[in-house]
Design brief:
The protein is 50% helix and 13% strand. About 3% of the residues have low confidence. The protein starts with 14 loop residues before the first helix and ends in a 21-residue tail after the last helix. It contains 5 helices and 4 strands, in the order H-H-E-E-H-H-E-E-H.
């Protein structure tokens, strides 16, 4: 309790409380977009690629391995991770009513990010298939079912960006942002 003009110290809410409160503030199409971004991140743990190696001797057995996005990390997988984090951060900030402007609006940014990731994943699907050889072994590369789900999640993310764009929701104003203290100032 506060006594003698002292204020009781306010504790800030924990991270899970902030996420839950931000989730409740988001519009339905923004929630679907967050789910699409999360599903894109989850697909990174599924099998994306297969590698098989065969030595030219008669007694050697083929050795094969299945890799997820983390096991064959490159620019494409980094882009998938960066877009996932960026979209979730954007939606979390909107859930906390943070005021900032993005060119074209949130929906356009999410639409372009999802489409870009879909193109990169499609490129990766074409790029990863093939056979290469050396004097000691022959290697064959292919794609697995997880990369198809990643492509679907990227297309879904782009579609949710289009849904946010069509909803025409107003970005939070500077006066709505809880982190901005205006103290009698007027912005028109």
């Amino acid at each position: 309790m506060a006594t003698g003009g002292q204020r009781a110290a306010r504790s800030s809410p924990g991270p899970l409380t902030r996420v839950f409160k931000a989730w409740r503030v988001l519009a339905p199409e923004q929630r679907v977009s967050a789910l699409a971004a999360l599903s894109l991140w989850v697909t990174m743990f599924l099998p994306w690629y297969s590698e098989t190696g065969i030595a030219p001797s008669k007694s050697s057995q083929p050795v094969s391995a299945t890799l997820n996005a983390w096991g064959a990390f490159s620019f494409v997988e980094l882009a998938v991770l960066a877009v996932t984090v960026a979209v979730l951060a954007l939606l979390f900030a909107r859930g906390e009513r943070r005021a900032f402007h993005l060119p074209g609006g949130d929906g356009t940014v999410i639409l372009v990010a999802g489409a870009w990731i879909a193109v990169l994943i499609f490129y990766r699907m074409l790029d990863k298939q093939g056979t290469r050889g050396s004097q000691t072994a022959i290697f064959s590369s292919g794609i697995e079912w997880g990369i198809f789900l990643a492509l679907f999640a990227a297309i879904w993310l782009a579609w949710t960006g289009l849904a946010i764009r069509r909803a025409h929701r107003r970005e939070p104003a500077l006066t709505d942002d809880p982190t901005v203290h205006l103290q009698g100032r007027r912005f028109d």
